[in-house]
TrEMBL record:
This is TIGR01457 family HAD-type hydrolase. The lineage of its organism: Bacteria, Bacillati, Bacillota, Bacilli, Bacillales. Its cofactor is Mg(2+). Divalent metal ions. Mg(2+) is the most effective. It comes from Halalkalibacillus sediminis. The keyword Magnesium applies.
Amino acid sequence: MKNYSAYLIDLDGTMYRGKEVIAEARQFIEHLQANGIPYRYVTNNSSRTPEDTAKKLQNFGIEASVEQIVTASMAAAAHIKSHFPEARAFAIGERGLTDALKEVGIEIVEESPDVVIMGIDRENNYKKLRNACLYVQQGAEFLATNPDIKVPTEKGLVPGNGAFIKLVENVTGVEPTVIGKPKRHMIDFALEQIGANAEDTIMVGDNYDTDILAGMEAGLDTLHVHTGVTTLDEIKNKDRRPTYSIETLEEWFK
């Protein structure tokens, strides 16, 4: 096993499942800390702020600071500010997204936007989706924080943001620019924050279609853990396989 100088770590399905902590997660993080290895939590969950996410981890007994959190909303806001600095945004999403947009000075509007940005919104409704479709057809840039079709919870899999962006894509015929995993935008954003090189960093996650593919796209080695979405049998059927695949995080440092 190669020694890595930095780790990017998924949350849902890797550190916890919904309201339940994954037993080996705390020990995994404690090992990184004990060896002075820097890491960032990299999550496609666009609904929570970094403060919310850090608090959730802390409540599970997992060490986390706000500075260690990288969300798809943060990366999306940075992307919009960089590529469309004067853009006005129509946002479907929760506080994690709207706070991230406001943090970098992006104006959120209900009419005539330059950008439509979609994140998970548990108060979503027909009017919001209808307006998103209309604005994209009128020429607004279409972006999405993440494409997760399903999300693991303690009760089972539930719809993710990808289920809703597919609706808008099917109506408009326009494919969104995805910022979160499996695209590399958020990985590059996290690497820049941590000051690490791709070749010396490993991406850790449970979902092949997001975590593992994002790591591959960004040139990182990848560690697949069988505690969330993608099973070992599914991994065996992939043409491109993760660098490593283990049952639980407890196995990694043995």
